[in-house]
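[job 4471] stage=fold_predict status=RUNNING
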Amino acid sequence: MIQQTDAVSPPEDKSFGHWVSGFTDGEGCFYLGASKKGVFLVKFELRLRRDDSDILAEIHRFFGVGHLDMSCMNNGFEQTAFRVHKISDVVRVIIPHFDAFPLRSKKRRDYATWREAAMLYNSVQVRARAGRRVRGERRWLEHEAAEFLRLRAELQESRRYGPSVARAAELKASRGAV
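[job 4471] inference complete, writing structure tokens
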């Protein structure tokens, strides 16, 4: 279900906006996290080798939100990540961007699931800030937490890589025919 956001307008450079969406199709990550203590996280991330960090700095300037982090991978290579995890930035900037400049690869399914979870997360945050909870009540109602976890599982499942059942049958048949 598509929900409207109180969004800022996407940046004016439409060609760069399309490019960012295409780049995200290949390099982006729409992440949903959950701890055992019931702490949830919504994050958008682009990660590259350190020698490509200039493009992430340009994307950071384009969006005007988030931050850049530098780290070292286990193999010793340095990398840079552009991350946006503040929910108000996700809802006001990141979601409107990908709604205006849609993804074209299979990652669009990831985005749709992630977007739904982000809007749920935002509604919980808005309710909590407005003080509409009973003293002692948890921030996430049980059905909201269950829905977030369902969406997280759906996102994880959509990322599983493997041949389709039909393709597997084709491969099996072609091997038998040789």
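[job 4471] summary: The first helix runs from residue 14 to 27.
[job 4471] exit 0
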